[in-house]
Structure formats: structure tokens, C-alpha cells
């Protein structure tokens, strides 16, 4: 078997495993089963034609090896168990209960202003304006 024929067989195997998995997922979801099989056929048909053209043997039967590899890949891909995909969980660092909040840390200059009375109203835009109109 030459390198191009080996590549044809490996591409057929990879395609079979991929679309076999898609076939199993469609079967589990109750979807259309023909789409993964047709997509695999679209990829494997030119590979088999290329194998017939490039076959150096006198018998010319290497296309059967590629066809067997393609069907075996599709079968094994469909029989592989379908794993449920769980979304990735992003873990943020958790603050310990005994550590102070950054606004309460005395080394930060913003913490001194937040501790002064009336600083909360000054931090909110329009709070003094609303206080003036409510008093009037």
C-alpha cells in the first residue's frame, strides 16, 4: 500500500469516526439520521475513486480496504458512548470571611472617604440635587 492509499484509508477512518458520532447524537436526540451518513458518503466516495485510480496492484482490490475502513469507522463511531457535554465552570477566587473588604482596608485612600458621613450621598450622582429639591 502506498502513502496516498494509506492517507485515503486514514481519512476514511477519521471521517467514519466523526460522522458515526454525529449519527449516534442524532439518534439519541431523535434527529435526522440520513444527514451524517450522507455527509460521510460524500467524503468517502472521492476517496474510493482515488483509490481505484491509484491502486498499483494487479487485482485492483485496495478500494475494498478503504471501503471497509470507512464502514468500520462509521460503525465504531456510532457505537462509541456519547458523553454529555457539561459547560465549563469558571472558578473565581473566593474571599475568606476574616479578610476585610477592599473598601474597608485603611491603606486605600478611597476607604477613608467612604467612611465619612455624607460620602455615600456625594458618591451618587444627583443625590445632592435630589436632596435639595425634596427639602424645598
Automatic annotation (TrEMBL):
Keywords: Membrane, Transmembrane, Transmembrane helix. It comes from Deinococcus caeni. The keyword Transmembrane applies. The chain crosses the membrane at residues 36-54, 61-79. This is Uncharacterized protein. Residues 100-136 have a biased composition (Low complexity). Residues 93-136 are annotated as: Disordered.
Amino acid at each position: 500500500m502506498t502513502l496516498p492509499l494509506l492517507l485515503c484509508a486514514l481519512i476514511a477512518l477519521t471521517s467514519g469516526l466523526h460522522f458515526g458520532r454525529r449519527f449516534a447524537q442524532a439518534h439519541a436526540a431523535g434527529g435526522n439520521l440520513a444527514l451524517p451518513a450522507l455527509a460521510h458518503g460524500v467524503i468517502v466516495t472521492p476517496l474510493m475513486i482515488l483509490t481505484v485510480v491509484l491502486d498499483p496492484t494487479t487485482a485492483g482490490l485496495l478500494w475494498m480496504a478503504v471501503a471497509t475502513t470507512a464502514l468500520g469507522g462509521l460503525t465504531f463511531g456510532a457505537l462509541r458512548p456519547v458523553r454529555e457535554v457539561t459547560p465549563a465552570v469558571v472558578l473565581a477566587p473566593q474571599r475568606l470571611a476574616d479578610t476585610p473588604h477592599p473598601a474597608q482596608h485603611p491603606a486605600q485612600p478611597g476607604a477613608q472617604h467612604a467612611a465619612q458621613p455624607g460620602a455615600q450621598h456625594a458618591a451618587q450622582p444627583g443625590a445632592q440635587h435630589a436632596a435639595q429639591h425634596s427639602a424645598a
